[in-house]
C-alpha cells in the first residue's frame, strides 16, 4: 500500500502561542496550486495530506529524477510531475521546498532567478509574479539569512517525520496534531504569515512563531543533539552483543537509523548550538562517571533522579520525530 497505517500520534508540547487547528476536510480547496520541490517521505506526506484533506486543488511535484517523480505521479501523490521548477513557479500559489537544508537556500534562489531579473534593485527580489514560498528544514538560521532579499519566503519547520525514506513511505496523517514553527523575517508581511499559518493548520498542525536563531538553539537540544547521542550509543554496540539488546537499547537508538546524508547536513548547518549541547551531555556524563569512581551511591541516585524527573515532565505532552 502507498500509505502505511499512521504511527501513534505524537507532537511537540502545546504552547499558549500555538494557533488552533483548522477543521478539515474542506468543502472547497484552500489553495489552488501547491508546488512541492522534493517529493520524498516528507514531501510525499505533505502531498498526501493536501489531497486527503482537500486543501489544494492541484499539487505539482518537482524532482531531479524524471523516473522517480513520474512514479510519484502514477502513485497518485501528485497531479503533475516536472523536473524544473521554473516551468511552474509563476503559476503556483505556494511553493514548499523539501530539499536538504544545505541546498535549500540555493534551490530557492535558483527557482526565482528568472522572475527576479526584471527587478530594478538587484539586491532584492519582490516580483509580483513570485508566489508565497516556504520550506520544511529543521535548521532555519543559515537558510533564512541567505534569503532575506526574497520577502515572499518564510521559513517553516513542521516537526514531524520518520527514519523511513522515499515517497513510498508517505503518510497523509504524518502532520496531524503536530507543531509547525514559522520563522518570519522583518520583511515578511502579516498577510503572508497569516496565509502560511492557515496552510499548515489546514493539514492538522498547530503553529508557533520564533526567530530563526531561537528555533535553531531550541531544536539543537530537542532534536539534533538526541540524534547525535543515539548514534554515539549505537556505535558502542559490538557485533557479539547485538542479540542481547532489549527494547531499551532499541528505543533509545531508534532515531540513529535516520539518513546519514540528511543528518550530516542538519548538524553541520547548526553546529554552533549542537556542539554546545554535546558539551552539556559530556559534562553530565562526567558527573555520573565521577560519582561511580567514588562509589558515591547518593550522587549516582541524585543524577538518575534528576533525569527521571525531567523525563516525567514530558508525560501528558506529545512529541514528534524530525
**Unreliable segments of 5+ consecutive residues:** 1-24
CATH architecture name of the largest domain: 3-Layer(aba) Sandwich
Please, how many domains?
2
Shape: elongated
Strand count, sense and barrel status of the largest sheet are: 5 strands, parallel
CATH class of the largest domain: Alpha Beta
How far do the termini sit from each other? Answer: 23 Å
Along the chain, the helix and strand elements come as: EHEHEEHEHEEHEHHHHH
Helix-strand category: alpha/beta
Total E-strand runs: 8
Description:
- This protein has 322 residues and is an alpha/beta fold.
- The chain folds into 2 domains: 31-210, Rossmann fold; 216-312, 6-phosphogluconate dehydrogenase C-terminal fold, CATH 1.10.3660.
- 42% of the residues lie in helices and 12% in strands.
- It contains 10 helices and 8 strands.
- It has helices at residues 41-52, 66-74, 101-116, 141-146, 190-202, 212-235, 247-252, 260-269, 271-293, 297-312; strands at 31-37, 56-62, 80-82, 94-97, 132-135, 155-158, 179-183, 206-209.
- The strands form 2 sheets. It has a 5-stranded parallel β-sheet with strand order 3-2-1-4-5, sandwiched between helices. It has a 3-stranded mixed β-sheet with strand order 6-7-8, with helices on one face.
- Strand 1 (31-37), helix 1 (41-52) and strand 2 form a beta-alpha-beta unit.
- Helix 6 crosses helix 9 (271-293) and helix 9 (271-293) runs antiparallel to helix 10.
- The longest helix is centred in the last third of the chain and has 24 residues, at 212-235.
- It is elongated and about 70 Å long.
- The two termini are 23 Å apart.
- The model is unreliable at 1-24 (pLDDT under 50).
Amino acid at each position: 500500500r502507498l500509505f502505511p497505517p499512521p504511527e501513534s500520534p505524537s507532537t511537540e508540547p502545546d504552547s499558549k502561542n500555538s494557533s488552533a487547528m483548522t477543521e478539515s476536510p474542506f468543502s472547497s480547496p484552500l489553495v489552488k496550486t501547491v508546488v512541492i520541490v522534493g517529493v520524498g517521505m516528507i514531501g510525499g506526506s505533505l502531498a498526501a495530506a493536501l489531497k486527503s484533506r482537500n486543501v489544494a486543488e492541484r499539487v505539482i511535484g518537482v524532482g531531479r529524477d524524471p523516473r522517480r517523480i513520474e512514479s510519484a505521479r502514477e502513485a497518485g501523490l501528485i497531479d503533475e510531475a516536472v523536473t524544473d521548477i521554473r516551468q511552474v513557479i509563476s503559476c503556483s500559489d505556494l511553493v514548499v521546498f523539501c530539499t536538504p537544508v544545505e541546498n535549500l537556500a540555493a534551490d530557492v534562489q535558483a527557482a526565482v532567478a528568472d522572475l527576479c531579473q526584471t527587478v530594478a534593485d538587484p539586491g532584492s527580489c519582490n516580483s509580483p509574479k513570485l508566489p508565497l514560498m516556504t520550506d520544511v528544514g529543521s535548521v532555519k538560521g543559515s537558510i533564512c539569512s541567505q534569503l532575506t532579499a526574497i520577502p515572499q519566503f518564510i521559513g517553516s519547520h513542521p516537526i514531524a517525520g520518520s527514519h523511513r525514506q522515499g515517497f513510498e513511505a508517505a503518510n497523509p496523517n504524518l502532520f496531524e496534531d503536530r507543531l509547525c514553527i514559522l520563522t518570519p523575517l522583518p520583511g515578511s508581511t502579516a498577510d503572508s504569515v497569516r496565509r502560511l499559518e492557515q496552510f499548515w493548520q489546514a493539514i492538522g498542525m498547530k503553529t508557533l512563531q520564533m526567530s530563526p536563531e531561537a528555533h535553531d538553539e531550541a531544536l539543537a537540544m530537542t532534536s539534533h543533539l538526541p540524534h547525535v547521542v543515539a548514534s554515539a550509543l549505537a556505535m558502542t554496540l559490538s557485533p557479539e552483543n547485538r542479540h542481547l539488546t532489549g527494547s531499551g537499547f532499541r528505543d533509545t537508538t531508534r532515531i540513529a537509523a535516520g539518513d546519514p546524508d540528511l543528518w550530516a547536513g542538519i548538524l553541520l548547518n547548526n553546529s554552533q548550538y549542537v556542539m554546545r549541547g554535546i558539551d552539556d551531555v559530556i559534562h553530565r556524563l562526567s558527573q555520573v562517571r565521577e560519582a561511580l569512581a567514588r562509589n558515591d551511591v547518593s550522587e549516582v541516585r541524585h543524577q538518575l533522579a534528576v533525569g527521571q524527573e525531567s523525563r516525567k515532565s514530558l508525560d501528558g505532552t506529545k512529541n514528534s520525530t524530525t
